[in-house]
Amino acid sequence: MNPQRRELLSRALCSAPLLWLPRLLAQRQDRPTFRVKVDMVVLSFTVTDSKGRYINGLRPEDFRILEDGIPQRINTFAEGNKPPLQILDDGSARPMITARADPQRGGIATDAFVGTNVFILFDTSNYMYRGFVYASDAIADFVRGLDRADSVAVYTFSRNLTRAASLSRDRGEALQGLRKAVAGDEAALYNSLLLTLRDAAKVPGRKVIIVFSNGPDSASMVAPDDVRAVAEDEGIPIYVISTSDSNRDPISTGVFRRLASRTGGKSFFARTWQKQVEAFEAIREDLGNSYTITYYPAPNPNEGFRRITVEIKSDISRKYRVTARPGYRPRTGA
């Protein structure tokens, strides 16, 4: 997505209702001079062998991170939901301080880089009438099985987005919000996903979005590829569980696969309740077996898409597969 279009999307979300979004996207602007503002990059990825089994126990020194071929210095490193390590200038690692006093809550708040912030986006449109109850049960089982360090938010959508349960470690709050969901009318999936991305982007640390949908979008005013580009740039993996038949809806199928693969997530096509439970279990395993690193990008003149490469230094790495987002576009300002 070019800088002008990205800026228009941001303005539309912050100051204008979605009703005006197509007109805003179509507006012509003078070409300003942009400067690049690069923040810390958060990168989550999994490592698997040739049989798809997760490879655990790798250390920061086992990885080489490249951005447009430029080596990057890792700032922090974490495996699964273990406390993160801070990587010092000499390459050694030490535990980060993972807790701090939180007087507003009267206790201890865990550091943002422990656990995953999970945003569940549940399709409650008329496309989901038939399997609504079973879908809700599958989501509830997934929420109950999350690691204690994870936080979860439950959003629902039909024509409009509803924030049923805000981001919290309170599983009861998430389940209560989920059970209040009611079936609606038309589906505005991409509008709702864009708003969910906006909320997730405000949260520090690692976050993912899980979309549970039947597939068709009948009411959105934004293009799915624009939404995908925002997710890429924000570094938020999108996992998609679709209850539709992938062969009968090739358009939605292709979109879902692009959303997932281009952001470092995965897509599942699960028509039955059992397959949906299995998809959620696969996502939970992904979250628990992933690596998360942060880095501040080295100087790079590229103001467009920057390609990220994760390499494993050992010879055996040739047998390993790394699943990660392909890159991002740095933020720009006039």
Can you give a write-up of this model?
A 6-stranded antiparallel β-sheet has the order 7-6-5-16-2-18, with no helix packed on it. Strands 12-11-10-13-14-15 form a 6-stranded mixed β-sheet, with helices on both faces. The longest helix is centred in the last third of the chain and has 16 residues, at 273-288. The protein starts with a helix and ends with a strand. A hairpin with a 5-residue loop joins β6 (85-87) and β7 (93-95). The chain has helices at residues 3-15, 21-26, 132-145, 171-179, 189-201, 224-234, 250-261, 273-288, and strands spanning 35-37, 41-48, 63-67, 70-72, 74-79, 85-87, 93-95, 99-102, 107-110, 117-123, 151-157, 161-168, 207-213, 238-242, 267-269, 291-295, 306-312, 321-323, 327-328, 331-333. It is built from 8 helices and 20 strands. The chain is an alpha+beta fold. The chain has 3 domains: 3-35, no CATH class; 39-96 and 290-329, no CATH class; 117-282, von Willebrand factor, type A domain (Rossmann fold, 3-Layer(aba) Sandwich). α3 runs antiparallel to α4 (171-179).
List keywords for this structure.
334 residues; alpha+beta; Rossmann fold; 3 domains; 6-stranded antiparallel sheet; 6-stranded mixed sheet
The major sheet is characterized as: 6 strands, antiparallel
> What's the gyration radius in Å?
20 Å
Name of the top-level CATH class of the largest domain: Alpha Beta
The CATH architecture name of the largest domain reads 3-Layer(aba) Sandwich
**Residue share in β-strands:** 25-35%
Q: Give the fraction of residues assigned to helices.
A: 25-40%
Please give the oligomerization state of what you see. Answer: single chain
Mean pLDDT figure: 83
What general form does the structure show?
globular
Number of helices: 8
The number of E-state strands comes to 20
CATH-defined superfamily of the largest domain: von Willebrand factor, type A domain
Indicate how many domains the architecture comprises. Answer: 3
